[in-house]
Amino acid sequence: MIFVQLGILLAMILIGSRMKGIGLGVMGMVGLLIFVLVFKMTPAEPPIPVLLIILAIVTTAATLQAAGGLDYLVSIAERIIRKNPSHITFIAPFTTYFLCLFAGTAHIVYSLLPIIAEVSAKQRIRPERPLSVSVIASHLAITGSPMSAATASLVTILAYSSASIDIMKICIPAAICGIFASILAVRKKGLELDQDPIFIEKMKDPEFARSMSTGTVENGVSSYTPAPGAKTAVAIFGVAILLIIFFGAFPNYVPYVGGGKSFSVNADGTINLTTLIIMVTLSASACIMLITKTSAAKVAKMSLFTSMATAVVSVLGVVWMSATFMLANETVIENTFRDIVTNQPWTFAIALFLMGALTFSQAATTRTLMPMGVMLGITNPHLLAMFPAVNGDFLLPGYPTLVAAIDFDRTGSTKIGKFVVNHSFMLPGMVAITVTIIVGFILSGVLL
Q1: pLDDT at 220 over 60
Q2: Taking the C-alpha atoms of 441, 442, 444 and 445 in order, what is their torsion angle to the nearest 10 degrees?
Q3: Where do the H-state alpha helices sit in 409-448?
Q4: Phi, psi of 43 (to 5 degrees)
Q5: What is the pLDDT of residues 323-351, one digit of tens each?
């Protein structure tokens, strides 16, 4: 019976991922309805903490966007990339990584992709190389940023005071190593642009040839002027990040309120980190609006804010369905996988990677599978080392950042192959994830 139920769960995820948008969430609810009505399963607890974290963090990021803070951060990244055009394959991925690490979202990469594509093409560097690694780097940043929903979700699951610090201690240096390895893997990938038959054919078009000439950006400097409150908004956002890191690093400073364990209070009477994240980020959002005079109506119109609804519906549907399946089959799953995972903990990373590929969501994957890892007895250091495996969303080239990179590359070097999975992001993605996890295991053994 468990295989029938598993088949239904995977079918709902596959159908939902093809529908895109909120499709994953609504199909997850269809699966949950089947589990409850047909198989008489008891619904698991809905992932309320994760949904509230997503709401709070994305609202704050959208406020930063409305105040011009995101544009200001992108302008800094653009200057770094344009200043060293001949080394763009090395500079662009790391610039993207640290920008997304600070912002807590990979979607900021959309603003950088056309810059990376333009600069590399005009330097006659195959755009596929920096574009593919930059996209993968933007995903890896999510599993290290204290401002991402995936990281916040793992903190609540592990439920120990220094979890957020340990995640950064392991995942950030491991990801840097993974990105560097993926850069080395792609630095000679494909034909040089001047030898690429697709590019040569495109250059026969005089208009295209003119657009590929250098000097379209005067002196290599953008004409961007920061909005009046942009720098202040970035400073407030930065303070919010530091506060979250501070409470994670120094649990003795977490407010003590007493009372029994509840949604907001730990068993020892201290405010839990989930509640602190929500309060700090939304307070930062309020400060940005008040100090920079950014209207709340403008925040609600931002692309990041409107994307929040999709994220919330998707996480609610797929995570609730998956949690119900796990709860109903907890004993079977535990007995089947405990010995395998105990002897070879790294095998759990494969499950995280495949779930990430199916759900297109690091937060949903984290919330769905990490509790099973805890249940199976995998140690916290090993779970932290495997955390970057949730970035399997590049396996199938349907994730928006991959599609955008392909669209922005006018030379045609960044593409999807005949067999779908042989796309431009497969090599850097597999290398980056593999090296990141290996380095993560090494670091967890040394630092934790």
Answers
A1: no
A2: 120
A3: 426-447
A4: -60, 135
A5: 888 788 877 877 777 777 777 888 899 98
Give the model's confidence band at 177: pLDDT under 50 very low, under 70 low, under 90 confident, else very high. very high
Q: Name residues whose C-beta falls within 8 Å of residue 297's C-beta, 6 or more positions apart in sequence.
A: none
Percent of the chain with pLDDT over 90: 33
Instruction: Count Cβ atoms below 10 Å from residue 120 Cβ, excluding itself.
Output: 26
Query: What whole-number distance in Å separates Cα of residue 331 and Cα of residue 376?
Result: 10
Query: pLDDT-derived band of residue 35, with 50, 70 and 90 as boundaries?
Result: very high
Alpha-carbon Rg for the chain in angstroms: 22
CB atoms within 10 A of CB 192: 11
Is the CB of residue 83 less than 8 Å from the CB of residue 221?
no
* DSSP string computed for 61-110: HHHHHHTTHHHHHHHHHHHHHHHSGGGHHHHHHHHHHHHHHHHT-GGGHH
pLDDT of residue 443: 96
Half-sphere exposure of 74 (CA within 13 A, CB side): 24
* Dihedral Cα 82, 83, 87, 92, nearest 10 deg: -50
User: When comparing pLDDT for 176 and 411, which is higher?
Assistant: 176
Q: What are phi and psi of 270, to 5 degrees?
A: -95, 155
**Where would I find the beta strands (DSSP E) of 336-442?**
none
**What length does the chain have?**
448
Give residue 136's identity as a one-letter amino acid code.
I
Q: Exposed (0-12), middle (13-18) or buried (19+): which is 405, by Cβ within 10 Å?
A: buried
CA distance 8 to 136: 30
For the chain, what are the domain ranges?
A: 2-447
Phi-psi region of 32 (alpha: psi -120 to 50; beta: other; left: phi over 0): alpha
Structure confidence at residue 218 (pLDDT): 42
pLDDT at position 221 over 60: no
Distance, CA of 309 to CA of 305 (rounded, Å): 8
pLDDT greater than 80 at residue 164: yes
Give the pLDDT score at 20.
67
Q: 148, 142 in Cβ contact below 8 A?
A: yes
Nearest to 338 by CA among 367, 391, 376, 364: 376
Element (H, E) at 370: helix 362-375
